[in-house]
Amino acid sequence: MADGNPYGYRVVTPEEVAEVSAAEGAPLLLDVRTPGEYRSHRIPGALLIPVDELNRRYQELDPDRPTVCVCEHGIRSEAAAAFLARQDFADVSTMRGGMVRWLGPVERG
What is the pTM of this model? Predict the structure, then answer.
């Protein structure tokens, strides 16, 4: 259980994500939106695995690496974080508010 959350993941702010994503040993930023949303705008370095593919592809991820799930508004990322926590990922978070609250740099294309 992470931070008292019965679902096993933490909720972090976009500001916290910006701070840790620039640090050495940064967590994996897992973008769980659609490919079109990802191409439109994404956090630099984020890995795309759409939430509807996660149950088939989560083995591609390192369960021991801290992982922050990101979506557009924070709803799909909560579902993804809960799923990864149930798969025994050690340190999983969801970014509150999603990309609509992200003020950091973005990549397009």
Answer: 0.93
